[in-house]
Amino acid sequence: MEKVIKQILVLNGPNLNMLGLREQEHYGTASLDDIEKSVKEIVDKNGFSVEFKQSNNEGEIVSWIQQSINNSSGLIINAGAYTHTSIAIFDALKIIDIPIIEVHLSNIYAREHFRKTSLISELATGIICGFGKLSYELAIQAMITNIQKTGKKINE
Ligand code: DQA
After folding, report:
1. pLDDT in tens, 88-99
2. By alpha-carbon position, which residue is closest to atom 1 of ligand 1?
3. 84 C-alpha to ligand 1 centroid (Å)
4. Domains contained in the chain, CATH given
């Protein structure tokens, strides 16, 4: 019998552990824990599960992306500043064969010039940015709907 893997991986890059304290005019007042809580509520309601992780370390994020190959049916990623710089994360994302949603709290196209380039966007199924905590809520909802429609099937 075939079943859909229902785990979604949410990865957060550098400095996102400082949300709530960090540049509130761009990132709002919610902490990463607050965001994780709301994401989990949405996931629970829909019968999915989520792994929600943060690292300030590029290599660790690369390893988590690699591990998603066998464990997850979708990846939501806010790579923070690595969005604009990391070829290692770009290469890791190219290996995996699951839908990717790129998320940002702020509208990266309405800020400094260097933020307008994302190495992740061309690999993403979709991009959500500019809505603060709501960006993550929209992303998880979009991912659930996407998996329900096109979910990766495995043999049970
Ligand atoms: C960010 C935008 C990035 O440019 C920045 O480096 C971050 C956060 C966002 O969520 O708006 O760390 O990814």
Report:
1. 999 999 999 999
2. 80
3. 9
4. 2-155 (3.40.50.9100)
